[in-house]
Design a protein that fits this description.
With 420 residues, this protein is mostly beta strands.
């Protein structure tokens, strides 16, 4: 990638202009000093050198100039850094950037984002400026094509801006075709050990059952998009017996909040503990479970990716304990816990129960992932995960970890195990 600088005069002009514009993620309409600095560092007066020039015209409103990308060859499960260069010719009010990564068989990764680290949407781009936008795309670990195609463009509502330049039938600029190394080492996935419960826990939302004192504690959840530490140290523990799977979420929270009252409400839009289970690990059908701070549950069977059947009801039992006061937003809470039991016969939803062993044996493994949705008093909703999907899709089955059933209470190491 090329290094280049803006002129001091132009940078000062941009910062003065930006002080009048709104900034994504800020409660105030005024960008912070940090916003101004980062936006200024990514705004240029002249077209820089880049790895690949594209020069695609988007009507008379903008030009997609080109991009840098690294590495030159990406591996399944690896990171691809894309750096785009745009120029606005007219105000782009209402328009947004999209980025898609595809293969020719139709495999799709949605890499949509707000440009310049979420600080500089297209609607705010000064006319004539060159905007540099870098972001990371995580390629799914089960990617099978030896090439990927990068597409981008501008969209508003249900329309996409027309293009003069390399494109496909869906009004997407074909930015680059990048080789994929399919011979690299297999990615490693997270694992958590579930201990056998000699006596089943009482489902009351508390952590006072003997099994929870013995069960290994997961590493703290991390940010879903980056894998970086999350400010709230969420953990989960697991246990099992011949009839049920048991889980305990421990979630520090200064403001425990959740207003939904009905089963299968949109719990994920407020605060929730979430569980995804692909019991036989075939990467096809799976179940999704959620519990809110009010103890409301959501359960769904999915015969295929994102094909929710919310009319399926599991036999899950869940209870919540709150250390503080629920839905009192003017005080300080400590957190909340979710304890649940799930019949093993529900692990496959409406799928074929013959795909798993019931009763299970020590050593059996289920593909799972755990998430936590948090809604602070101020600011945007936050998401964290046990095994981060590293893209905007909790249903990324290739990023699920493994829950390993064990009948020993010996301390377990949380080492990842090789993917099958």
């Amino acid at each position: 990638m090329c290094r280049f600088q803006t002129s001091r005069t132009f940078l000062l002009f941009c910062l003065a202009t930006l002080s009048l514009q709104s900034c994504v993620g800020q409660d105030s309409s005024r960008p912070s000093a940090d916003d101004k600095r980062i936006i200024g560092e990514n705004t240029f007066a002249e077209v820089p050198k880049m790895d690949k020039r594209v020069d695609a015209k988007l009507e008379d409103k903008a030009t997609y100039l080109g991009l840098d990308f690294k590495p030159a060859q990406v591996r399944p499960g690896g990171r691809l850094t894309l750096t785009h260069y745009w120029q606005a010719h007219k105000p782009l009010r209402g328009w947004k950037v999209f980025v898609h990564v595809n293969d020719k068989a139709g495999r799709f990764v949605n890499a949509d984002h707000t440009p310049v680290q979420g600080r500089h949407p297209a609607a705010d781009w000064p006319v004539g400026s060159i905007i540099r936008d870098s972001h990371v795309v995580h390629l799914p670990s089960d990617w099978r094509a030896d090439k990927l195609q990068v597409y981008t463009g501008l969209w508003r509502g249900s329309e996409r801006m027309t293009i003069e330049g390399p494109q496909d039938k869906d009004r997407r600029i074909l930015v680059a075709e990048i080789p994929v190394n399919l011979r690299g080492p297999k990615p490693r996935r997270k694992s958590l050990r579930a201990i056998r419960a000699t006596n089943p826990p009482v489902i009351d939302g508390r952590m006072d059952d003997p099994v929870w004192r013995k069960a290994p504690v997961s590493p703290a959840f991390v940010e879903t998009m980056t894998g970086k530490p999350s400010p709230l140290k969420t953990t989960v523990r697991a246990a099992w017996d011949d009839k049920n799977l048991y889980l305990l979420f421990d979630m520090p929270d200064p403001d425990v909040w959740g207003e939904f009252d009905k089963r299968d409400d949109k719990l994920w839009t407020q605060e929730a503990a979430e569980i995804f289970i692909d019991a036989d690990g075939d990467g096809k059908d799976y179940i999704e479970l959620q519990v809110s701070p009010k103890g409301v549950i959501f359960d769904s069977y999915l015969p295929a990716h994102r094909k929710n059947q919310n009319d399926w009801n599991s036999g899950m039992k869940a209870a919540v304990s709150v250390d503080g006061s629920l839905n009192q937003r003017d005080d300080e809470d400590k957190g909340w816990r979710v304890e649940l039991s799930l019949p093993l016969t529900d692990l496959v939803g409406r799928g074929d129960l013959k795909k798993i062993r019931i009763p299970p044996k020590a050593g059996d493994r289920y593909r799972v992932n755990f998430f936590r949705m948090e809604q602070p008093k101020k600011g945007p909703q936050q998401a964290s995960a046990w095994s981060p999907p590293l893209r905007g899709d909790f249903h990324a089955l290739d990023r699920f970890g493994e829950l390993i059933l064990t009948d020993t209470t010996k301390k377990a190491k949380h080492e990842p195990v090789p993917a099958k």
